[in-house]
Every structure is written in structure tokens, then in C-alpha cells.
Amino acid sequence: MSAELLRQLQAFKAKHNISQQPKHGKVSFLYDWREARSVEPQAIAEAALSCFQDLVAQDPSLEEFAGLFEVEKEGYKGRDFLTTEENDELNDTIEKLLMHLSKHLLTDQGQTCLELLLSRYDIQTYNMEALLLAGIPFHDSPVFARLTKIVKWGEDSQWIFLAKVRKTGEPLKRQHLVHMARTSSSLWRTLCDYTRKTLKRGIVNRPLLTTINMVFLEALAESHKFTFDLAPALFPLITTAIKKGSTDRQAFSLAVTMLIPLIASSSFTDGDLCSVLARAVKHAPLPAFSDVVDILALGLRFSARQGNFWVKVARELDARFDAHSEQVLEAIGKSRGWTLVLSGLVLPFCESSFLSAVTSSTWLLGASSAAALCVCDSAVAIIANGPEESHVNEILPQLYDNFPVAVSRCALKHKCVKEVEALLPGAHVLDAQLLRHLSTTSASAREEAISQLVDRESTTGGEAKAVAGLVVERLGVEPSHVIRKKILGAKWVWEAVSGEVKRVALEGLLRKLLPSRERITPKQYWEEVVAVDERIVEEVDAVLSLLAEEATPAVIAVKVMRGDTLEITTPVMPSSEETYPGGAAGAAALIEACVEADSGAPTAHEVLEAIESLGLDKSVDASVYAKMASATTEDGDVEKLAGLMINNPACKEMAKSAVKGTGKRPVLLSLAVRQHNLKAFRMYTDLVGPKANDSALFLASLLVLGSDGSSKHMRSFAQSAIVSRTKAPAASS
Q1: From CA 305, how far away is CA 490, in angstroms rounded?
Q2: For 566, phi and psi rounded to 5 degrees?
Q3: Which one in 93, 347, 404, 664 has a CA-CA gap of 20 to 30 Å to 521?
Q4: Which range among 381-390, 460-469, 531-540, 589-598 has the greatest average pLDDT?
């Protein structure tokens, strides 16, 4: 070779980064090209067979590929010697095997099996895409980076974006894969189609599903257009994942995750949406059935609900109910969108047995008024506008017995009172005019409506509960004393409602009748706020009569304020989280009841803590302080008691008596220094008199003067105390 040609060849190799010594080794995953030349094919085959048998023990479905791992592959000379048909058949087998091996690629066994496939079947050339797809679940690992170095792709391949990974040997980062999936529709279709085939073949590959799920969610977060552009590739994958959901919970979760944004973005037609949802209802595992109900609600929320597409979904829902009634009912009750499912799917299209079970379900009976009204509105609308023969007709009496007010109002709204009444055993609904008058501004109209309602003592069943509920509900907002008295006097009303409803309504009325007042004792509150209005006294007496068997904090507080003598077996201290009739006066009444209790009374320390924390020092009756003074012995409690009594004008002399002894006086100085209590400071000087050499007072005065928290009056008083008790120096001769 001439020197000029040699120079040109060397320059070309340097420019294109070609090694001066050509690599003549074999392609290998486990070894570099030099080591691969020295490894015998027989050794690779034996090691691969052993590893393959280990994998078969873990996953018996791999057994069908045993022929590929025979140590002596009889008659096989290489891929180049196979016919086109033979190569196609081998490609299908290897691609299916790689789907199985995908989840094992991080293990030694999986990598050893892969080594045989490379050395014997040249999968880096003939099955390049299947090999890369098998490694996608581990794209951020060195294993995937190694795969990119041994495969071969063309310049127009969709995998060309992996060139940097091949060059640097660094794993493919998640954000790069997400970006490519979002911007390359062909790559996204390939990933979805590969995942769909994996699921369709019944291959469980959790790393793959997790990766595809994360790529989808992160790509969606980057661009809302993602669902519109790439939805066609998702539809077959979701359909397959749903179908396999009965045996693979993760596959079903993947489908649900992908469905949510597709439904919300209206990427489906109603026909396609209902087809997918029908499959979801049919194949969903029971533990995940509440997810299906949520998806149904979402579909109803964002679909046009036109045509009979939803009949297909209802048919599958009926079938699941027939097979698993309790689980299906429970799943509907747990869903946040159960009102949509009932209104848009169950009531219009499902069978009567399903409707009857739903109507009597505990979660519907315990639903809020708004939710019950929504369901009743849908049922009555079907009667008003739907076909003459409807399953709703059969369950309307049951629905009316549970929610008579809601059904009556909806019948009025849809102008079908006669049609609804024709379906009810009693042949009537609640009078619409009467319901209107309950919320009118005219007191006379309201009084007449209440009178008519409370006079219905013969009313029974659900209607009685509903009427009583309406009346009791009115009690809390009714401004008229006459109407409230009429409600309180209707004995059958209070017998018809539950104990909890009765207690809540009556205690609410007590809080309304007895507004909060500060710095007033329970006895004073009753005399100055309640007793001055005979109408309030009448209502309070009526409420307490209805709650005669109750011993709740609110009832006890009001009885103490009224001056009743109580026998309390389980005292209840007031709480900062509760609101009591009379406010602070009611809380102080509770403390008084606890102190007077025959058994279980709180300790003096607990009582003092409650008074201080709730700010009741000026609301507690003097009798409570008197009991505390005789029961308090601890220095800290004595100081706290003295501070509380000093702040209460009615207990000033009692406070003096409590600290009159020389041993207890220092608590006053402690209050003065620590709490900057001027009243305690003055009381101490009054008790000790004009004593000249009181070192404790002198020290306390200095501390007050040196404190930043002392008020101007405190400082002035401290200075006066020092000056008045300092002897003037004797005059010099």
C-alpha cells in the first residue's frame, strides 16, 4: 500500500472514530468482543439451559420455549440457512419468548438466556425491536444501555433517538422517554401495541405496566393535547387491559388510570365509551369494582348520553348484580359519583330487582337531603317524560316511603303530581302549597302550614317521619314564638323523629334562646336574661320537658342556671370545642354541676385549669370558689385560685381570706411578678400594712421595675411601695 493511500485511510479512521485494529469478535451481552471470541458456544448453551430451567421453575409458562435452549440444536445451521417461512415462524417464537423474559432481564438467569439468543439466533439483527421493547421496563438501568450497543437499527428507525445512549453508555432517563413518547406517535403506538400483545397473551409483566403507566401520566402532565393525539393507540390497549382485569388486577388499574383523562377530554365517542365501560363492568375484579363505578360516573358526567349506548352498560351491570349483589351495592355506595350512576344509568335502564335493592340500601337511606333529592328528581323525571312501562314505576312507592318530601317536591317541579299519585298506595303526595308555605315570609301562612302538619297525627310510615322531619327542621330557623310553641307541643312529631335528630334540634333551640354572655354567673344569667321574658321561660321549660331523660352537657347547664337540684352520676367538664347555651355562663354552670356532683367530681386542679383555660374567672359562681378554697393545698393551685378570685369582683374578700395567712401571702407577689397582676400587688400591700423592712416586697418591686412586661401603673405602684417603706437617713450633727 502506498504511503499516500495509507495516510488517507488513517485520516478517514480518525475522522470517523474507527479503531486502528478492527474488532472481529462476536456480538455478546455478557462479554466484550475480545472475551466473546474465547467462549465456546457449547458452554454458553449449557449455562443458558441451566438458567432457563431455573426460570421455568418460577414461571411454568416458559416451558413451551424449551426447544430453543437445547444444547445440541439438531439441524440448525444459522438464520441465513432458513427459508423465509422458517424465519418468520422463528421470529414469532422469539418475540413471544422475549415478552416472557422481559421481567427477568435484571437477573443473571435472564441475561444468560439472552446471551444464547444472541449467539445462536442473532436476535440483535432479526429481532431488534422486540429486544429493545423487552428492555423498556428497565430503560433507566445499565442493562438497557448495554442492549443499545449490540442491536442494529437503520437511519430512518424510530429508535434512532437511542444513539446517544449507545454512544455514552448512560441509561435512558425517564423524562427523555416521556418526551419521545409524547412527540413521536409511531413510538407511542409501538409501546402501546407491545403492551397490548403482552396482556393479550396472558403474560404478567408488572415492570412493563408500571413503566407504560408512568410514561402516560408524565406525558399527559407535560401536554393536555397528549390524549387527543395519541388516544387511537390507547383504545385497543385499554380494551385488552380491561378484558384481562379479571385475572390481572394491575392490568385493570392501568386501564382505569388511562381511561380517566380520555373520558374527561372527550376523546371517545359515546359508542366507543359505552363499549369500553361495558367491558369494564363485565371484567372488573370485585375488589376494584368501586373504581368502575367512579369511571361510570365520570363517563356519565362527560358524555352526551344520547342514543341507547348506555343500555349495553346497564345490561352488564345487571349481570354483575345478579352474580354479586352485595359487593356491587357496596361498591356503588362507596363511589363519590353514586348519584350520577343512579340517575343516569341504574334508574333509566336497570332491572327492577336492582332498583329495589338500591332503594332500600343503607347508604341511600342515610344520604344527605341534596343527594336524595337528586335521585328522586331523576326517578320522577322518568315518570314524567319516560316510557309508560318503566321499572321506576315499581319502586316509586318504596322511594316515596323513604323520601316523601323529595318525591313530592319533584312531582311539583315536573308537573306530574297526578301521574305520581296514581302509582302510590295512598294515592297522594304531600300538598305542594303546604310545602311552599313552610318557607314563606308570612308568619300567618307559616303558622297555618305548621298547624296542618302537626295535626296529622294519623300519618304513618315514611310520610310521618318526613312530616316530622320538616317540622323539626323548621324549629331551628323559625322566628315566631307562637309557631315554635306549636311545634314543641306536638307530641307525635317528637315520637316520629329519631333520638339523635330530636336532641340536636332541641339543643340547637336552647342555644338560640340563650345567647352567649360574658362575665355573668349562671344564676345572674337566668335572672337578667331569661326570667325577664316569660315566652323564653315557657320555651325553655318545654324543651327541658322533652329532654327530661337526657343528661347532656347542654341540658345540665340550663338546669343549673334555672336553679334545679341535680343528681349527677357522671360529671362532664366543659370543653373549648363545644358551644353551650348561655356561652360562658353555660360553661360555668357545667363546672358548678361538676363541683356539686356526689361522685366522680373532678379534682381542684382540674377545675382551676378549666376555669383558667376557658376564661371563666368572672363567670363562675362564688360557691365554686369557696369549695376550691377549702380543697386547694398545692402552692401552684393556691396561686392560680388566688389569681382567679382576685379577677372576680364578687370574690375579693374571699381571696383576701384565702391568702391572709403569712405562709400564703407570697403567692400574691408571685402573681404580681409573673402575671403582672396589679390587683394582687395592691392586696399584698394592704395585708402587710406600712411595714418598713419587708424584703420580699422590696425584691418583688425591683423585679417589677426591671420587667419589660410591666405596665406603667405597675411600675408606678412598685416605686411608691419602695419609697414609702424606705426610712429616711438620720440628720448629721
Answers
A1: 48
A2: -110, 150
A3: 664
A4: 531-540
Q: Around Cβ 69, how many Cβ atoms within 10 Å?
A: 23
Q: Is the dihedral of CA 357, 360, 365, 366 positive or negative?
A: negative
- pLDDT band at 260; cut points 50, 70, 90: confident
The three-point CA angle 284-289-293 to 5° equals 110
Q: Which of 595, 587, 593 is nearest to 618 (CA)?
A: 587
408 or 345, greater pLDDT: 345
pLDDT bin (cut points 50, 70, 90) of residue 22 is: very low
Distances (CA, A) of 313 to 594, 634, 646: 62, 74, 75
DSSP result, 442-478: -HHHHHHHHHHHHT-TT--HHHHHHHHHHHHHHHTT-
- By the 8 A CB rule, do 134 and 101 touch? yes
Cα–Cα distances (Å) from 715 to 10, 481, 673, in that order, read 98, 55, 11
| Three-state SS at 113 | helix
How far apart, in whole angstroms, are the C-alpha atoms of residue 516 and residue 609? 21
* Short-list 114, 14, 119, 2, CA closest to 55: 114
Domain segments of the chain: what residues? Answer: 46-340, 436-497, 498-658, 659-725
Q: Which pLDDT does position 137 carry in this prediction?
A: 95
Q: What are phi and psi of 605, to 5 degrees?
A: -60, -45
Q: Largest Cα–Cα distance in the chain?
A: 140
What are the E-state strand segments in 179-308?
none
Q: How many CB atoms lie within 10 A of CB 308?
A: 9
pLDDT, the chain, mean: 83
Residue 432 reports pLDDT greater than 70 = no
Task: Please tell me the distance from the alpha carbon of residue 110 to that of residue 368, in angstroms, as a whole number.
Answer: 57
State the Cα angle at 472 between 470 and 473, rounded to 5°: 65
Are 131 and 123 in contact by the 8 Å Cβ rule? The answer is yes
Answer yes or no: are the C-beta atoms of 543 and 536 closer than 8 Å.
no
Burial of residue 441, with CB atoms counted within 10 A of its CB: 0-12 exposed, 13-18 middle, 19 or more buried:
exposed
**Which region, left, alpha or beta, applies to residue 49 given φ > 0 means left and ψ of -120 to 50 means alpha?**
alpha
Residues in the chain: 733
What confidence tier does 58 reach under pLDDT thresholds 50, 70, 90? Answer: very high
Question: What is the value of pTM for the model shown?
Answer: 0.60
360 Cβ neighbours under 8 A, 6+ residues apart: 398, 402
Q: What distance in Å separates the CA atoms of residue 506 and residue 514, rounded to the nearest whole number?
A: 12
Of 715, 687, 683, nearest in space to 701 by CA: 715
- Of the spans 130-134, 290-294, 583-587, which averages the highest pLDDT? 130-134
> Which burial class, exposed, middle or buried, applies to 569 when counting CB atoms under 10 A from its CB (0-12, 13-18, 19+)?
exposed
| Cell numbers describing residue 306 | 344520547
| pLDDT tens, position by position, 80-131 | 888 889 889 999 999 999 999 999 999 999 999 999 999 888 998 899 999 9
CB 151 within 8 A of CB 132: yes
pLDDT of residue 729: 47
Task: Please enumerate in sequence order all residues whose Cβ is within 8 A of that of 565, keeping only pairs 6 or more positions apart, or say none.
Answer: none
Angle at 426 between CA 422 and CA 430, to 5 degrees: 85
Alpha-carbon span 628 to 613, nearest angstrom = 16
Residue that has been written with the C-alpha cell 416472557 in this structure: 100
The alpha carbons of the chain give a radius of gyration, in whole angstroms, of: 43
What would the grid cell of residue 167 be? 454512544
Query: Could you tell me the end-to-end alpha-carbon distance of the chain, in angstroms, rounded to an integer?
Result: 134
Q: What residue type is assigned to position 338 of the chain? A: W
Question: What's the rounded Cα separation, in Å, for the pair 304 and 306?
Answer: 5
Distance CA 279, CA 267 (A): 18
Give 265's DSSP letter.
T
Indicate the pLDDT class of residue 461, thresholds 50, 70 and 90: low
